[in-house]
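Please predict the structure of the following assembly.
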Amino acid sequence: MSREVQVPDMGDVEEAEVIEVFVQAGQSVSANEPLITLESDKAAMDLPSPFGGMVEAVHVKVGDMVSEGSLVATLTDRPEDSAPKPEEPEAESPPSPDPVAEAPSEPAVSPAPPPVAPEPRRLGALPHAGPAVRRFARELGVDLEQVSGSGRKGRITREDVQLYVKAILTRQQEPVAAARPSGPPVDAERFGPTRTEPLTRIQRRSGTNLQRNWQLAPHVSQHHKADITELDRCQRELRGQKGFESLTVTACVLQACAQVLGQFPRVNASLSEDGRELVVREYIHIGFAANTDEGLVVPVIRDADQKSISVLAGEIAALAERARTQQLTAEDMQGGGFTLSNLGGIGGGHFTPVINLPQVAVLGISRAVREPVCIEDRVESRLMMPLSLSYDHRVIDGVEGAQFVMALASLLENPDQLDWGEG
Amino acid sequence: MKTIDLVVIGGGPGGYSAAFRASDLGMKVMLVERFSRLGGVCLNVGCIPSKTLLHAAGLIEDAAEWRDRGVVFDPPKIDLDALRAWKEQGVSQLADGLGALAKRREVEVVTGRGEFVSAHTLAVETEEGREEVRFGQAVIATGSRPIKLGLFPDDARILDSTSALDLAEIPERLLVVGGGVLGLELATVFRALGSQVTVVEALDQVMGEADKDVARAYLKRNTGRFVAVHTGTQVQNAEAKDDGIAVQFEGADRQWEESFDSVLVAVGRAANSESLGLENAGVAVGESGTIPANHQQRTNIPHIFAIGDVTGAPMLAHRASYQGRLAAEVAAGMKSAYEARVIPSVAYTDPEVAWVGLTEREAKAQGIAYERGTFPWAASGRAVGTARVEGMTKLLFDSETKRLIGAAVVGVHAGELIAEAALAIETGCEAEDIAGTIHPHPTFSETLAQASEVVEGTVTELFLGRGRGQ
């Protein structure tokens, strides 16, 4: 059945111009969908369709003057008017513009390809959250798409994001347990009483990093012993003097490492993220492992190659103190290109330190002990310090690793080549 | 060599925002600006001075218009020197303020040109000579400049936006080439100051980014104020003659020639990415000289950021300052990213035209079903009392999610009104939210609520038929 749509009573407006036509023959419209826009002296207004149906004909075009009773369009009933056909409007290419109805100046839109490619997300379909909550979510790395909002009409609130993170964290603890960092489960309680002690936050975090580093980097450890008899003598002489109040072996070795790193830039490099390039640092920042009650931390000394042992000793002492009192900032622990770990205070021989990725090498030093050493044909008692260099074999080959250690030992054996600085 | 945490090249709204924010976040910052005053194009030769002149233009128009309404002024006398001085005074005041803010933040402002020597070294050319500084990170905020069209002769009577704002003189017959926001703003100024203004636009509509009905509402008041607005028309040739610039036009169905005392070219802006030594730093330059940046404003060299006009369209000061603060935060290690959904645009014409989010044309092109609520200002008490009924407020809502996706306002203070729509889009408001927010009466801002009520079917200031909005 065909029904006509006419211009209704426009109040005190007698005549109006058709300035836009939204529909064309063959198109289906629902009730209240605008058919045309009319403009009078006073205002522009849409003329909504009084009922739904298929447009059989449009009787006006842009520029026509109409008044109450003018015929606008003829509509026919659709077979199932109430049931919307969801695919239709989308599957259909945008209606090719009616050359009369559409103002001729409209840039020609090719009707064929639906505009799908570049548009990332519909503005209206983005997660329902204001700028502050979006920012909050980004800080926590939360994908707002995954968060269900508890606010009015599903609006995501700050609390929703917090709850989401909490839920994820709780859930995550199970998969971690499932991955069994401790190996196959054994009920230790069966064999005697046990108790549990929580790991500290630092221990948990460094545990994850250590596991990753150990698995990712093919480690090789080069061992050697440096004769530090002379170095020890110099150190004893200077210790306690002005400027050398905090003098330690760590400061001496760190100075030596800085010098040797200058000669071996690859040891002060990292693999690029895609593993295709070497990122060589043109500065020498060295981290040193510091033990605290909470666990191991690695503060970083910047531009170590430009600092004397005296300066380094002071900085090491200051950073170690801040580490002990848990006052290190994230920045204090960033930027290192090489790491030094000194177990000398405890004793023991060589060990295999774990590389702190993305660095490619780490040096471990252990307690120096007096040993009989053959010098030419004589046996002398010399103070020997074990050096353990672990390196990432993807970047450093065995020759370079050994050369690095030998150069380092040679420097430690000739303390006059170190920059001691002035008291 | 001096070492700094962050160097910012360019002291416009994007650059100084970046420098100031970075300094507030604890970084050691150097800001390199080629001119002695901060503020860039926006403050010195753009937004701010043009708005001063547009305000003056508005006064002139209003005074003339109210003659028939019982408020009669003598015809205005324009003292160009005084007007120019007032404009300069405002600019100086703001620029001095920026300088003082920089000082208090201990941002080192260097007057000179920056050129990358490497990815971590910048050479700064100042009056004292050339100095190299080493930087941890850098922000490129060098902005843009007016595009020059080769077909116009090199002649003092050919103006761009910068020289036009100098107000050297008021030409009698002025041709404005470019019917976009900038061209029409300057056309508004010069028409109020007494020029006979002709506008030519290559597209078939002025304010090409806005919807047709928006452009039409704007033109309703301006047809007759300008000598002519030629849309769909190209300038074929221009020749400098003693008695004026002879311009040849080509429209859809005719060609003709006209002479003008001055021609103002406002056809867009080009990114300032040359002579920055970008190749030395490895920074990639994209189409038409713009520098592509990612959602954190990083260029292809991650520690070098690019913000504002130099990254391309839309070239707007408020976009630049948002990006500037963002780049500073990212440089300082915060997890910030570009998350704004929309950027409002404002033409400070008479009437003002402002829009934000999607236009109807864009919504249709993207296949988004929407509902439109248009409220004509003829039905606004505030507009009637002010005799500014040519305005309209149009809101577009996504039919599926019901949320606001676009808005356009034509009318006085449209630039102020559009901010509410921008907030509504960012926060995901529906028509019901806007309509349900009590707006003060009588105001122009009411029309946003009323346009929402049109969609809801609950509007009472218009009659759309009974039985709606149930």
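The first strand of chain B starts at residue 2 and ends at 9. The two ends of chain B are 73 Å apart (CA to CA).
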